[in-house]
Amino acid sequence: MRWRKPKDDSSEEFFSRKRAAMVEEQLAARRIRDQRLLTVMGDLPRHRFVPPELASRAYEDGPLPIGEGQTISQPYIVAEMTEALRLVGDEKVLEIGTGSGYQTAILCRMSAEVVTVERLESLSRAAQAILASLGIDNVRFRVGDGTLGSPEDAPFDRVIVTAAAPDVPEPVFAQMREGGIMVIPIGGRWEQDLVSVRKEKGEPRREYLGGCRFVPLLGERGFPA
User: Fold this and answer.
1) Mean pLDDT of residues grouped by 10 in the chain (225 residues)?
2) Catalytic residues
3) Could you tell me the domains of the chain?
4) How far apart, in Å, do the first and last CA atoms of the chain sit?
């Protein structure tokens, strides 16, 4: 029998193939059409945003744990939420729930400026380190109650909430510009609807995008801890 070199699951070539397959099979095949988004997700090393022991699974079609009871979302959900923001590149974006920093990095590459708020300082610090190592610097990190937004950085053109809320957090909606868009999972602790909320004449206009499941958004205007 001819000897074959074992597959190296830590090689950049391995991860590059996994990224390409993710984009083709999980995103484009499910009608993600934003070519700029597909390019960004095909380039960004998602495996850097998960624990080392899970790196080889980073491009699987599902969420993965990142510690502190939190997860990195399924690639398709990340793409769906980002595409729903309708980014053109000049926006100021508020992200509620930094988590691993993967969604943050995508937003940074697709918009002018990002402010990201995380309740858990340990996750915020880890995300800061990863983004810095990737040379991403158009972002400000905040630690605190994301359900209150980031009033010192407002107003925002876009808002993305990466945890499930019982309803649109009013303080966050108030920090959006007229015509701005928020993408947020709304519902109970276990099942939600993904909703796009546009601010029109100061009022929320909702568009339901489909069912989803996120960890709960904890805070004053979210779920109790």
Assistant:
1) 47 93 98 97 98 96 94 97 98 98 98 98 98 97 98 98 96 98 96 97 96 94 92
2) 73
3) 12-212 (3.40.50.150)
4) 59
